[in-house]
Design goal:
This protein is of the alpha+beta class. The chain contains 5 helices and 7 strands. The mean pLDDT is about 85.
Length: about 180
């Protein structure tokens, strides 16, 4: 992770403290599993130090490069998210994703994982260019390869008429029984 994504809270007085971080391509490039390779993010964190916990309010703004689900071209997607995480001094374990337990003798917290997770969750599940910005050549090429399904179960009206005329007379007697 990038070098200075730690907040040293041990020397801070109780109360509110503000921190700012800029995160770029290097942060995401070193992650093997990241779908984000390029980014320009500005992260503002307001830390509230209390006796037994730290409350961090993250505000992440900027843009990340993602692949368009429609035309497969890369494009920059704007990100703007606010989240709160609580760091409690304890050796316990939390099932709540917004509460993190840290040892009581800890003097700093690494915020790289929360930054990554909050950025990823801020990206919508459907990622498409703004209207009219997709690569038209790629869309046309994909249309050439898409299979078009035809509904053969519904015959045309013309086919129905000709089928009625060509019915085997033996079936006519069975149709009468059906009524």
């Amino acid at each position: 992770m990038e070098a200075n994504l730690n907040i040293q809270f041990s020397g801070l007085k109780e109360g509110l403290h503000d921190f700012h971080f800029d995160v770029g391509n290097a942060f995401f490039e070193q992650l093997d599993y990241s779908e984000i390779q390029k980014a320009e993010l500005s992260i503002d964190i307001q830390l509230e130090k209390q006796t037994n916990m730290l409350i961090l309010n993250f505000e992440i703004k900027g843009r990340v490069m993602v692949m368009c689900d429609k035309c497969t071209d890369d494009f920059y997607l704007d990100i703007n998210t606010n989240e709160e995480l609580i760091y409690k001094f304890s050796d316990g374990f939390s099932d709540d994703e917004k509460i993190v337990f840290i040892p009581e003798n800890e003097v700093k917290i690494d915020i790289s994982q929360p930054i990554y997770e909050l950025t990823i969750t801020a990206i919508p599940s459907k990622r498409v260019h703004p209207d009219g910005k997709c690569n038209q050549e790629m869309l046309e090429a994909m249309d050439d390869y898409l299979m078009v399904e035809t509904d053969e179960a519904e015959p045309d009206d013309d086919d129905t008429k000709s089928d009625d005329q060509d019915i085997d007379p033996r079936w006519e007697e069975l149709k009468k029984l059906k009524k």
